[in-house]
Predict the structure.
Amino acid sequence: MRKFFATLFGALSTSMGFLVVAPKLNDFLWIPQLLLNEFSWIPTVFGVVGMILSVVRKPRHYWALVLSVLGISFSTKPFWWIPRTIADQKQSMRRGIGADYESKIPPVMFTRMATSYWSLSNTFGGRERNAKVHVSSDITYSMPGNRPLKLDVYHPKVAPAVGDRYPAIVCVHGGSWASGDKNDAFTVHHRYLASQGYVVFAVQYRLSGEAIWPAQMEDVQCAVRWVKHHADQYDVDAQRVALFGRSAGGHIALMAAYRACDPAVKKTCLPDVDANVQSVVAIYPPTDLRLWRSVSWSAVTALMGGLTHEKPQAYADASPVEFVRDGLPPTLLVQGYMDELVFPAHAESLKNRLWCTDTPVVMLRSPWSRHGFDGSLSGLGAQIAQYSIDRFLAWSLYGESRHE
C-alpha cells in the first residue's frame, strides 16, 4: 500500500510539474496549465509526500522517489524566479514613477493595500474574504443603435483616503473583443479594488460580432464620460479616473486613454464631457494589431472587418504603439512571459516606446505566468503583481502625482 501511494503521489507531481514547465499543449489543457503555474506549490507538496513515503522505511521505492524528485524539480521552477521577479518589479516602479513614489501615497492607503508581495493568508483567499463593498448592477450608460450598454458599480464601504470624494476605476473586460462581459471572473478583483477606496465601474462594450473597431473604444470613452457626468451621484472625484483592462480590454483601455482628446474619434454620448483619465493599467494587452495572425478566422480580423493587408491604416489606427507621445497618462503594463496568446513583445514594444517620452511607464513581468494568470488573487504571479498595482493606482489617483 505504501508503494502504491508513493508511486501515485510521485506520478501526480511529475505530470502536474511537467504541465508547469511545458509550453501550451492544447486548448483543453490551457486552464490546468494556467492554474498549475500559479499554484505550483500543489504538485510540490505531492512530490514531497511521495518522496517521504518512498524512503520513510525499508524497502525503499526508488521509482516512486525518482518520480517525486522529478515532479519537485519541475514544479518549483516558479519559486526560483521569485527573488529576481520582485527585484525587477521594484526597479521598474522606481524607474517609472520615481524612487520616492511611496512618499506621495496617503498613509491610510498602506493599511488597505497589499502589505507584502506574497503571504500564506492571501494564498488561501485572504484578499477575497476581506473585500467588503456595495454593488449596484446593470445600470445603462449608453444606447448605441438601441443596444443598451450596462455597467456595475462597486462602491467602497471605507472613507476616502483624501477629502470627501473617491477616485474611480473603469474596468474593461477581455474576451478577444468577441466575448466576455462585465461580470466575468474578475468581479472578485473589482471588489478588492473597491475595498481600498476606489469606486469601480465594470463596463460592457459592443463586441466584434455587433460592431467593428473603433466602436469598442468609443463605448469605453463614453463610459468614462458617463462616470464623470454622474460623479456627484457616486461620490466620485471626476478629476481622478483610471482605466483598467485585461487582454482585449487592456488594448481598448490603452486606446481609450491615448486617444481621449483625438478629434477624429466620434463622441457617442455626452460630447461636452471629456474622456481624459489620470492613469491606465493594461494587463497582457495587444499593443500592435499588425503582429496578430492575419487569417480570416482570427479575433483581430473579426474586430477590424478585414485582413491586415486589406486595411493597413485601420490596423495602425487601432494599435496603441502608434499613439505614443509625451504627456500621456501614466501607464502600467503587466505581462506573463509564458503567455502564448498575447506575446510579451506587445507589452515590451509599447514600454520601450513610452520610455522615450516623458510619459511615466512601469512594466511588471512574471516569468512563469500565462495568459489570464491574475484570474485568482491567490495565485503566485497575481499576488506579486498586485503589490505593485496597488501602489501604482494609489500614486496616480490618491497621491500627489496627479497634481504634478
